[in-house]
Amino acid sequence: MVVIGGSGTGKSVLIKHIIGLLRPDEGKVVVKGAVISESDRSDLNELRRSMGMLFQQAALFDSMTVGDNVAFELRQHTSMGAEEVADRVEEMLTMVGLSGLQDKWPADLSGGMKKRAGLARALALGPEIVLYDEPTTGLDPILADQINDLIRDLQKRLNVTSVTITHDMISAYKIADRIAMLHKGRIEEVGTPGEIQDSSNPIVQQFIHGRAEGPITPR
């Protein structure tokens, strides 16, 4: 699922509700059959361990090597020994195309490499759900396309559920099975990429074609 929408429409707020950082004023968020806002701390932490998240700016710890960044959640939430952690880190880095870069520092990486390292960390615990917050933001078109290909490949290879927040329509069309259009905090329309492109909704059409004129007022 890809959620599209302009700045300030509630895309990042949606992710915060999914992971339980915010409580909804109305309605409810259900993940794996559990109502997030009704879950106690223990249950919520267990649910969060079943999710991985790639933050918009990768959010790597600058004071840690790439390997230690990827190993962070493994050391916090598993009983793996040092050798097992090292093997898992190498497996994850290889999966995202960064094999052998454990000892590099985040400052040594390009923007695309930071995204890949952040993704390796998000996948380290073997999540069932992966959340992507604007995964192609700040990348040139070639690097963005590489990240799109990687996301699509991992969805198929790992059979994970993906929820991607983006305003990048090229990315949305490439990685989405379904797209939801978010406007003023509400889902305006949901459909396949083809259905969204053919939508008669003027809000959807204005956004996907990037038109200045229409019902959406830029903030």
TrEMBL record:
Gene Ontology terms for molecular function: ATP binding; ATP hydrolysis activity
Domain ABC transporter residue range list: 1-209
Gene3D superfamilies in alphabetical order: P-loop containing nucleotide triphosphate hydrolases
Pfam families: ABC_tran (PF00005)
Keywords: ATP-binding, Nucleotide-binding, Transport
Name of the protein in question: ABC transporter domain-containing protein
Listed InterPro entries: AAA+_ATPase (IPR003593), ABC_transporter-like_ATP-bd (IPR003439), ABC_transporter-like_CS (IPR017871), P-loop_NTPase (IPR027417)
